Structures are given as C-alpha cells and as structure tokens.
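Lecture 7 notes: from sequence to structure.
We start with the chain below.
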Amino acid sequence: MTEAAARRAPGTPCWVSLMVHGMAATQGFYAALFGWEFRPGPQQLGPYVRALLGGHEVAGIGQMPSDRHLPVAWTPYLASDDVDATAETVRHCGGTVGVGPLDAGEAGRMAIASDPAGAVFGIWQAAEHLGMALSGVPGAPAWNELVTQETESVAKFYEATFGYEEEAVVSADFDYLTLRLNGSPVAAVHGVGHSLPRDRGAHWMTYFEVADVDDSVSLVEELGGHVLKPARDGSRGRVATVADPEGAVFTLVRSVPLGEG
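Predicted structure tokens for the same chain:
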C-alpha cells in the first residue's frame, strides 16, 4: 500500500495519545492490559513512546511536562492534509489551539486544539507516520466518541472544521449524532446534558477493543486502575468505562459484529 493510499481522509480519527506523569508505570499497566510493547517516537514534546500490538503501532504515550498541570486523558487525533489551515479553521469556528502547529520530526505535523465546549483533540498531518496500523482488534482502539452537554452547537463546529456529515438518532431522550465521512461512520457525539462530569467537562472518549470486557475490567482493578461504569450491554456491544492508575478514562468494548446488533 502506498502512502497516498494509506493516508486517511481529513477528519478521520487516525491516532490516540496519552500524556502522563509516570511513563514507566503507565507502560507497565497497558502492557499487562492490552499486550502492548513500546518503542521510542518523536521527542518534540518530551519523552514519547509508541505502543505496538503484534508489531503494529496503535497508540502513543508521552511524558507530561513538569510545568504543565493538565488532565491526564486519552486524546484522539483527527487527520488533516494541512494542519495549519485546519488550526486556522478551528480558531475561526470558535475553538482554541493550545499547542502548535509544530513538526513532530519526520513523522508529521501536529496541533492540539479544543472545541467550543472545551473538549481536547489533536490534529495530525501525516508524513512518515500515518497513524494507527490496527483498529478494532483486541488491544487496539475501536471507536472515538465526544461526550458533551448537547450535540447541536458543537457538531456544527466539527462539521465546519472537518466536513463531517451528521446522522442523528431520532429520540426524545437520547441526544446522539454519528459523524460520517463519505458515508462511513468515523466518530460520534453524545449529548449527556447535566450528566456531564463536572470534574472533566466535555471530553473525547476512546474505546479500546477487548476479547472479554468482564475479564478486562477485573484486570484493570488488579493493575491498580478503577472502574467508573461497570460492564453493561450497549448499542456498540458490551462496554465498561474505566480509568488507569493516573486517572486517564477510557472505555473497554467487545464490539457487536455488523449485522448482529
């Protein structure tokens, strides 16, 4: 596959990354939970490793700068063909660009931004590093969902910035939009109203595929993590929301195969 063929369409989630205080302990947690191995990545923002699953890159973990007191959180990166132009659009549409745009060595060019409701996401313009080499298999990212107070206004921001088409769930009590590119679902926006966690505010949630959600929940606890929402059956399959020992929140999912949901 050529680079051009492998390059993701603008707006497609292409990578997930986590900034933490304790790199070694965090790598140990995810190695035990997902079977990840690690190798060094670009160091522009400090120490950084890429997580590999069976030799394929699936995620990144970086060292939080000691002078930055930011939330420890998984951050999805959305593909762009021109990160500088996308960053300008983010600002024009009411968002904020907090880091960059800047070059990440030979890997590509990046920025970290937040939408008008405050949810943080990355923007990635690929060069040598095209992003996740695997998705939807146990140990790899499977889905990204924006959790926010209400979908309507913030969805307009993402639509204007990345060109998404929206598909709403028609329901009086369920505020949910699927974001599509070229007809294919790539992410979602879930409006949860006053159920939005006050300590976190609007945020992107990364779903990681696992072979057995209940077994993985038990392992999270054994490894020093926390269960925030116990295992339950949902529209995407069986899910549980957990946090790693530093508090980074993510969802475990055993996806329902298409046609069975």
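Points to note: The chain has a mean pLDDT of 92. Residues 141-255 form a domain with the 2,3-Dihydroxybiphenyl 1,2-Dioxygenase; domain 1 fold (CATH 3.10.180.10).
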